[in-house]
Amino acid sequence: MAYLITVDGIVQGVGFRPFVYNLAKSLGLKGYVKNSTFGVIIHLECDENVLLRFLDELKKNAPKNSKILDLTIEKIDDQRCDDFFIEKSLQHEGITLIPADIATCNDCLRELFDPSNRRYLYPFINCTNCGPRYSIIKHIPYDRDKTTMASFKMCVECKTEYENVKNRRFHAQPNCCVRCGPDVYLDGLKGVDAIKYCAELVDRGEIVSIKGLGGYHLICDALNRDAIERLRSLKNRKFKPFAVMVKDFETVKRYFSDELREFFDSPEAPILIVDTVGFLPKSISPLNRKIGFIKAYTPLHQLLFYYLKTEFIIATSGNLKDEPIVIDEETAEEKLSRFTRYFLHHNRPIHNRVDDSVFTIFDNKPYPIRVSRGFAPIPMITRVFYKDSLFGAGAGLKSHFAMSKGKYIIISQYLGDLDNAETVDFYEETFIKIKNLFDVDIKKVITDLHPDYYSTIFAEKYAETNGIPVVKLQHHKAHLYSLMAENNITDNVIGVIFDGTGLGDDKAIWGGEIFYVKGEIKRRFHLKYVKQPGGDASAKTPYKMLLGYLVQFGFDEGVIKKVESVFGVQNEGEVIKNLIDKCINSPLTSSMGRLFEAVGALITNTKINEFEGHAAIALESIAKHRNVKPYRYRLDVNEIDISPLFEDLIGDYLNGLPVETISFKFHYTIANIILECCKIIRDETGLDTVLFSGGVFQNLLLLELSFKRLRSCGFKTISHRKLPPNDASIALGQVYFVGLME
Ligand code: ZN
Ligand code: ZN
Ligand code: FE
């Protein structure tokens, strides 16, 4: 008897075939294993009992970095194989998933610091279980000559390892050593000397630019206040937190629960944001006590820590404000020279740029803020099979795009805010790369309703050139469907979508929306419209939005004058009233993001947003749990009227109630609003599963309060776990929604 097993998922470039080979050999089985565009195909000649044992071992001991997403078994005819072989790869229709970059494994770390090993202190050590993948892949199938390692010819020893199926480096495409592989250099020094010198510079308080896995970082000593200040002023960044790199988990374990160790130490090696108390300089994260830690995830970073005196370094993206992370030597010297004159370069080219991924913690589990290196390109299987491939262009900020093919939706790495030429180039370039890598024949594009998003313009142009249809999906509906996609849900949910900006079906700016899906999607509640003076610009100036609310809610001049004086301005209330009265550049909005920022502006005295959601984050971070009565609000058919909330809140503020309490009361009130709206929807529809998406739900206090209140009333609550709640998830929602409709 014989069986054909097809294993689909991330099974190429992660040591899957040699693992299958060794497993089959150890069980004395005959047959073969090969890669194909349907996944790894295993032909086994055995009876059912042995098959079950094989499958059991396969699932239990699969290589650490493989991900089995789908497995099918078929009974077939015996081919009378006389041994077990690894066969040549097949090229067919179908899809080959591309492995993400993998943090250095423990075996390689051991060898890196073993003086008797031939790769002792070699900064590019890697094996089948670790090393660069997506960042160096130019074409598929994933073979050395199709990566940026092509120009490095393996020496005899490396080649022998590469060809030996029993070796940990069997078909490890980036395999190399000090004799045949890439090297690092700094100021005329090479190899270990360059790394030693780099460590010296950092310990001396210098900022150094260093080329890593997915791009350049700027690094400096995280215990050196002067260095941090210098980096802040050079980056023109007063508040946005910096990530801190450490050698390993041991250095930071006091900040983590044991459950989170695994994630911190994972092959994906993300930045993980945790609560910290004191110790590290406040200037690393001026707005709160949270710090994003990341482990030294490449051998180069490991070696750096080997020579460094400090145990903590700032590791921030090497880029100019809002531009993509720099990946090549020349651009680094050109763009990053304003930050430093020291560059630790290396000569292994980066083909696909990937930023570090960022997660925070919600409910003691990782909660995504940015998903890129270690995950991208991100494959997702939902219940939808895509006969025709779709392209979801995403939104404008924190953009990603998505393409579907067969049973997969593939989501790009993080691409950034599409408001400058460099990011736009990055988007276009990645579009071509991913389309080619996965060989996607796009038959339909989906865009946001917003005509000015670069993603919309690009996708429409692509559709026109190729004569294919364009579908438009409202922004917040896309948010909801992205979370449904993550959870493979097709119907029957309530969606609380709180967000900064998204063009609505009625041309207003939406963002405080509560939907439900029962057969079709219905917008059941939204924040009552107010005018947003200055339009999109008010996302940068939350104090103007605040004055806008006060003017529209009829606060008297005395109050407005007092608020103006908080921000050191005069007569701006008057100007804003004029704009609003005359309907000049003052679109209607139901944005919850703008509300949080306006309240944050007042309560934390944040006049200008340095980055997206800044004033809202400041507001969240000062809140202290108190026993409080919520502020008042009114539900009016389908509108949530917050003018009573403003009256109460301004009253508290003028009466000098501690800002920590006001902030908490505000959060608590919004959670109450969510609960009451969901109860009404449950009464009307019987639905009791509530999904939370939209950028506002990066606010963990709001999420926690809402979850608690809803769960105590018998609701089931679901938050993002795979993609961020912000606009990063829009593209996935676009593709999933249209797939479901077809
Ligand atoms: Zn390794
Ligand atoms: Zn070699
Ligand atoms: Fe959004």
End-to-end separation = 41 Å
Please tell me the overall pLDDT: 95
Helix coverage percent: 25-40%
Cofactors, ions, other ligands: zinc ion, fe (iii) ion
Number of strands: 30
The shape is: globular
Q: Please outline the major beta sheet.
A: 11 strands, mixed
Strand content: 15-25%
Class by SSE composition: alpha/beta
Task: Outline the structure in words.
This protein is α/β, with parallel strands linked by helices and 742 residues long. Helices cover 34% and strands 23% of the residues. It contains 22 helices and 30 strands. The strands form 5 sheets. Strands 7-6-14-8-9-13-10-12-11-15-16 form an 11-stranded mixed β-sheet, with helices on both faces. Helix 14 crosses helix 16 (572-581) and helix 20 (659-685) crosses helix 21. It is globular, with a radius of gyration of 27 Å. The protein starts with a strand and ends with a helix. Bound molecules: zinc ion (2 copies) and fe (iii) ion. One zinc ion (ZN) binds at residues 154-155, 157-158, 176-177, 179-180.
Entry summary:
With 742 residues, the protein is α/β, with parallel strands linked by helices.
